[in-house]
UniProtKB/TrEMBL annotation:
<feature type="region of interest" description="Disordered">
    <location>
        <begin position="296"/>
        <end position="331"/>
    </location>
</feature>
<feature type="region of interest" description="Disordered">
    <location>
        <begin position="1"/>
        <end position="26"/>
    </location>
</feature>
<feature type="compositionally biased region" description="Basic and acidic residues">
    <location>
        <begin position="321"/>
        <end position="331"/>
    </location>
</feature>
<feature type="domain" description="Coenzyme Q-binding protein COQ10 START">
    <location>
        <begin position="161"/>
        <end position="285"/>
    </location>
</feature>
<dbReference type="Pfam" id="PF03364">
    <property type="entry name" value="Polyketide_cyc"/>
</dbReference>
<dbReference type="InterPro" id="IPR047137">
    <property type="entry name" value="ORF3"/>
</dbReference>
<dbReference type="InterPro" id="IPR023393">
    <property type="entry name" value="START-like_dom_sf"/>
</dbReference>
<protein>
    <submittedName>
        <fullName>SRPBCC family protein</fullName>
    </submittedName>
</protein>
<dbReference type="InterPro" id="IPR005031">
    <property type="entry name" value="COQ10_START"/>
</dbReference>
């Protein structure tokens, strides 16, 4: 039996072709997104009067109509029109983040104006500040949520098991058994000859679901799949079963690709909370090796409940059970 060192995961950025395909899918989705289009229209509606009538617009928000303020208002209007063109023409999360940056600048200028005003103009500026703050909150929400799935993470891992390729393929092909060794999976339900429904636990206990279709299935050699439209997290992958040299069994090579929630920030936060994706894949393959070679995930006496203990499969040194653990194991 191989040791834990037989399982290795390598993480690398998706290649240019994969990244391009993913970006095109995201752009198509953003073009149909009502919130993104609504923010594009709002940028246009605000930008036109700022450029064509900067003095009147400045007075409307309680700012003095002077050359410096007219110039600043015009610049803000041009920025809004550029953002509108981007969001309505070639939408991308970068345009949403540009709006967030512009909102911060607007709030800074309005706050400075509030400190130097009094009377009726102060009231108008305060109302403009409140409206801008509400728009900022909407822009931040749109930028964060629409960034999901843009960053593609690719993981590869491999291990060797002491079983022939046909048997290894046969176990992996039983999709409803995958949650028995994959910690993040809660349920896999076969819905058709080449389709299935998946439910998983994402970082912070969030549940995500998606429908998947098998794109390639070569008995004893290879299984490939991808998520269908409407998935909470776009993903795809493949697993190859290769006869190991010297009759040592089967090499399993797994490749997973998925859109990372909240982009790079999501990866950093997930790692901080102990949910490093590459480590998860290593652990999943290690448990698969245990299942196919011994018939079960090997656990010590000190961790009889396995997945329920932490939403995964904890491994601890053997020790006598406490009364509470014994009661839970027997219930």
């Amino acid at each position: 039996m191989q040791t834990d060192s037989d399982t290795r995961t390598h993480r690398r950025p998706a290649g240019p072709a994969r990244a391009l395909r993913k970006d095109r899918t995201s752009l198509t989705s953003l073009k149909r997104d009502p919130l993104v289009r609504g923010l594009g229209v709002a940028s246009a509606v605000l930008g036109v009067p700022q450029v064509t009538r900067p003095g009147e617009f400045a007075r409307g928000v309680g700012v003095e109509d002077e050359p410096r303020n007219r110039l600043a208002t015009t610049a803000v209007g041009v920025r809004d029109l550029v953002a509108a063109a981007g969001l309505l023409g070639r939408p991308h999360p970068a345009w949403l983040w540009c709006r967030v940056g512009g909102d911060v600048m607007d709030l800074t200028m309005l706050a400075r104006a509030l400190r130097t005003q009094d009377g009726g103009r102060t009231r108008r500026t305060a109302l403009a500040t409140a409206a801008t703050a509400a728009i900022t909150a909407t822009d931040v929400y749109a930028a964060v949520t629409r960034t999901r799935g843009i960053t593609t993470l690719e993981l590869t891992s491999s291990t060797t098991v002491a079983k022939p390729p046909g048997e290894v393929y046969g176990l992996w092909r039983q999709l409803d058994r995958l949650p028995t060794f994959m910690a993040h999976l809660d349920e896999v339900r076969v819905t058709g000859p080449r389709t299935s429904h998946w439910k998983a636990t994402a970082p912070f206990g969030t549940t995500v679901e998606w429908d998947a279709e098998t794109t390639e299935d070569v008995s004893g050699e290879r299984i490939a799949w991808r998520s269908r439209e409407g998935a909470d997290i776009d993903n795809s992958g493949e697993v190859r079963f290769v006869r190991a040299p010297g009759g040592r069994g089967t090499e399993i090579h797994v490749t997973l690709r998925y859109g990372l929630p909240a982009g790079p920030l999501g990866k950093v936060v997930a790692r901080y909370f102990g949910e490093e994706p590459s480590q998860q894949l290593d652990d999943d393959l290690r448990r698969f090796k245990q299942v196919i070679e011994t018939g079960e995930v090997v656990r010590s006496e000190g961790a009889p409940t396995g997945k329920r203990a932490r939403g995964e499969f904890p491994q601890r040194p053997a020790r006598p059970l406490t009364e509470d653990e014994l009661r839970e194991a027997l219930s």
